[in-house]
Amino acid sequence: MSMTARQRSLTIKAIQLIVLVVAVAALVLATNWGKVGKTFFNFGEVAPMFPDVILVGMRNTVLYTLGAFAFGLVLGLILALMRRSEFGPYRWIATAFIEFFRGVPALLVMLVVGFGVPMAFEVKWPLWVNVILALGLVSSAYIAETLRAGLQAVPKGQLEAARSLGMPQWRAMITIVIPQAFKIVLPPLTNEIILLTKDSSLVYVLGVMATQYEMTKFANDGINQYNAGITPLVVGGLLYLVLTLPLTALSRWFERTTQATSRAPKRATEAAKKEEVAA
Amino acid sequence: MTQSVRQAAAAGVRISDLRKSYGDNEVLKGIDLEVSPGEVVCLIGPSGSGKSTLLRCINLLEQPNGGAIEVGGYAVTDPDVDVDQMRTKVGMVFQQFNLFPHLTVLGNCTVAQTKVLKRAKAEAERTALSELEAVGLGHLAHRYPGELSGGQQQRVAIARALAMNPSLMLFDEPTSALDPETVGDVLAIMRKLAQAGMTMVVVTHEMGFAKEVADKVVFMDGGVVVEQGVAAEVIGNPQQARTKDFLRRVLDPNHVVVEED
Questions:
Q1: Amino acid A56: pLDDT
Q2: Residue A201 has what DSSP assignment?
Q3: What is the spatial distance between Cα B186 and Cα B169, in angstroms, rounded to a whole number?
Q4: Among A137, B142, B195, B214, which is least packed by CB within 10 angstroms?
Q5: What is the ipTM of this complex?
Q6: What is the DSSP-derived secondary structure letter of residue A189?
Q7: Rounded to two decimals, what is the model's pTM?
């Protein structure tokens, strides 16, 4: 039997489609839809959880995330600058710190900081401080590496030009180099805040009080509170998407705009033109 | 730009036995150079001759390993010198412009005035606009550098330096990265600046400009000054074999010119 290339391609596509339809049909027929609906999508039953999961849970998730991100950003910037320092000990300390907190699980850091810090240092500050401390430490390690890449991507001539105008090193960094570095790393930084939003769910391991619950805790408790299978978890998941999907969109938007207004494109085109002229 | 010259007295430069090495590679092997106030000196020479390094030593973008540099009687190589203070008096123009891409043209020309010289915003903007007008780009004050051509960017870079009212201007191959058709605009501004009495040290491959504008031409090769003197003499009637050879390569249109970096 001989087929043209076109026929062969069509046949293959048809076979794939048939297999897919058969598989989906088998799944649909074999599934007890009533039971699936009751387990996953029993939204009517869990309606009472909504005021709290949003007003308390989502509020706390956002609070923990933003707090940890702010702390992580400041610490990350310091670490990034230390890693680029000409003073050896700064570099070593920063490198050790970053490798440590990138290498251990966030859950472990949460437990150690949440239980260990109040015990060892006999401090009695509110829980959210420990949460922000723990999550911020972990994220600062990632943010530091991101920012370091951003600082490296700013051409050396920028610092030279700023210094030539009489700016001291710190002023040149703050006014000229760091703003450009941040612009370059906006997309990966948005990524980092998305990761933090999800990591804030780890707070539940600290045995928190009702007013400190974030969304995952509400969702988890909801399983026992309502006779709706794991629908509360589905609700929790959807609420995370409400927070993270806009951030993903924002990250894409940043990526597009930073590409559109690409920095200092003249160099390459002019070098190319120069070669053209010389040739 | 006449304004800046009016406000700051032109400074001279005195360089003696200047040495600079990168590891084992000695780039400047004892340079002596004198630039009088208001004088225009062009540094010429083949790639790797050390002319850019010499220029960058004057405002300490490169730290010399030996010798002394004085700018306007101010010993910049003194270990106790306030480098940042000195740099406000020494304008620098780079081959790659190095405008700040996240600031507007006006922002580029005001940022150091306000942050370093502590001028009021209004005064800084007035100075910046007058310098931008002088380079013919006042109408682009609110654009970003990325929207400008190379020649326009370099003119902004000159205005940015002049807005600080320097008493000395350093130019590091200011036209080497430009499209040929925009080179003339930048050279015209430099010519006007020279006529206004600014002290200028210019690393350049533009022999026509050097011959016409420079009071003195310094030919460097292999980290030493091979020949220096009145522009027309050095370019028109070179005495040293190395200078003759270099100028033949640069000036002879039939000679294959190897593009420098």
A1: 87
A2: G
A3: 14
A4: B142
A5: 0.91
A6: H
A7: 0.82
Please state, in angstroms and rounded to a whole number, the distance separating the CA atoms of residues B107 and B236. Answer: 43
The Cα–Cα gap between B43 and B214 comes to 10
Question: Which amino acid is residue A85, in one-letter code?
Answer: S
Size of interface A-B (CB pairs under 8 A): 90
Measured in degrees and rounded to the nearest 5, phi and psi for residue B21 equal -130, 150
User: How far apart, in whole angstroms, are the C-alpha atoms of residue A231 and residue A44?
Assistant: 10
Radius of gyration over every alpha carbon of chain B, rounded to an integer in angstroms: 18
Q: What is the pLDDT of residues B188-233, one digit of tens each?
A: 999 999 999 999 999 999 999 999 999 999 999 999 999 999 998 9
Contacts of B164 in chain A (CB under 8 A): 165-166
- Give residue A268's pLDDT: 43
Query: What DSSP designation does A71 have?
Result: H
Give the one of B92, B102, B259 whose C-beta lies nearest to A164's C-beta.
B92
Interface test with B, best of A170, A258, A266, A267 (most B CBs within 10 A): A266
Residue in the block written with tokens 């829980």: A127
Look up residue A231 and give its two tokens: 């629908």
Q: Which of B57, B70, B59, B61 is nearest to B20 (CA)?
A: B57
Which positions in chain B have a beta carbon within 8 angstroms of at least one beta carbon in chain A?
59, 61, 84-85, 87-88, 90-92, 94, 96-102, 111-112, 115-117, 144-146, 149-150, 153, 157, 160-161, 164, 177-180, 257, 259
Instruction: Please give the sequence-ordered ranges of beta strands (E in DSSP) within chain B, or none if there are none.
Output: 13-22, 25-35, 40-44, 66-71, 74-75, 90-93, 168-172, 200-203, 216-221, 224-230
Q: Is B176 helix (H, G, I), strand (E, B) or coil?
A: coil
B72 sits in the region (left: phi over 0; alpha: psi -120 to 50; else beta) called left
Sign of the alpha-carbon dihedral angle for B4, B9, B14, B20: negative
